[in-house]
Amino acid sequence: MLNRRHLRIKVLQILYAYFQTEDKDPLKAEKELYRSVEKMYELYIYFLLTFEELVSFAEQRMEDRQKKKFRPSESDLKPSRKFADNQIFKYFAQNNALRKKSEELKVNWGGAVKNDLMRKLFVHISNTEEYIQYMSNETSSFEEDKKFVHTLFKREIANFGLLHDFFESESIYWMDDIDLICSMVLKTIKSIEEKNSKSGAILPLYKDEKDEKNFINILIRKTLAKDDENAKIIDKLTQNWELDRIARMDIILLKMALTELTELQSIPKKVTLNEYIEISKYYSTPKSQVFINGILDKAIGLLDKEGKLLKTGRGLIN
Questions:
Q1: Cα dist from 184 to 129, 152, 188, 305, whole Å
Q2: Which residues touch 138 (CB under 8 Å, ≥6 apart)?
Q3: How far does CA 96 lie from the centroid of its chain?
Q4: CA atoms in the 13 A half-sphere facing the CB of 171
Q5: Residue closest to 264 by CA, chosen among 292, 315, 222
Q6: Which are the contacts of 36, defined by CB distance < 8 A and separation ≥ 6?
Q7: Are 134 and 148 in contact (CB under 8 A)?
């Protein structure tokens, strides 16, 4: 499920693109934000569907070795079905919620290019230490199947370079989303229990859809609406800096933080401060976190003095 930091990053990405273009359309930016957030769920579904595809190629390999080999060995004629019969793989193959979402979003691994990608993924996996060890163990259990799939996804599928190349070509935002979505997949695998292994839900995109949509709605709309006002505050607090020499990403982060401080009353000041410092570590210059920390610290003092920080709720005053 999405967390607030990732939602802030989504707003940051859209605002950065918005301020880069000459044709600035706030409504278009807002629509693009919602589209980029909703599209994250497609990435989640793509990853979950890889398991069924891998089984399909395992079945195909066994059939080819049985029927197409000139001199099939005993292991070719009677292959181990341990991988193909993995109970976690079956869970996803039989999951009605996953199937329904796949059809609704039109997400699948069909087509020559996607099919070839899944074939290459299976070939890669079949040569890994995890796969070889798993197949060499003649005993089988639900817990072993689950542990194998969890490890396989974490080490191999989530890090498969060709898969990353495909996702990058599908959406410019997905490379920033992969870590979060992979954590969702791992959480989904861990949640599967043997007694409920024939059916079950997949994770939703939002923990609280109404609340999270309201959060990004306010953040993007108010940041755009208060652009001039926030720019004046930043200018006042950076008198020893020339605005055109401050990293553009830092300016946008500061505008977002100022908006969050003044418009989202239920979020503590310290949370806002810490979140934008953390985001700056990954999306701006090496010195940005110190700069943003200093400016926001002064901004909180200024806004408090002017009575513009109206935080409400228990524990939110400080």
A1: 24, 15, 6, 42
A2: none
A3: 23
A4: 19
A5: 222
A6: 10, 13, 14, 171, 173
A7: yes
Report the candidate in 165, 172, 204, 207 with the shortest Cα–Cα distance to residue 188: 204
Residue 162 sits at the vertex; the CA angle it makes with 160 and 3, to the nearest 5 degrees, is: 60
The answer to whether 175 touches 167, Cβ cutoff 8 Å, is yes
- Digit-coded pLDDT (tens) for 7-24: 999 999 999 999 998 888
* Residue from 15, 183, 158 nearest 167 by CA: 158
Report the distance separating Cα 249 and Cα 13, nearest Å: 10
Record the pTM: 0.88
Q: Is the dihedral of CA 50, 52, 55, 56 positive or negative?
A: negative
Tell me the pLDDT tens digit for each residue of 31-77.
999 999 999 999 999 999 999 999 999 999 888 766 666 676 666 56
CB atoms closer than 10 angstroms to residue 306: 10
> Are the CB atoms for 177 and 40 separated by under 8 Å?
yes
Residue owning tokens 């099939």: 72
C-beta of residue 41 within 8 angstroms of C-beta of residue 205? yes
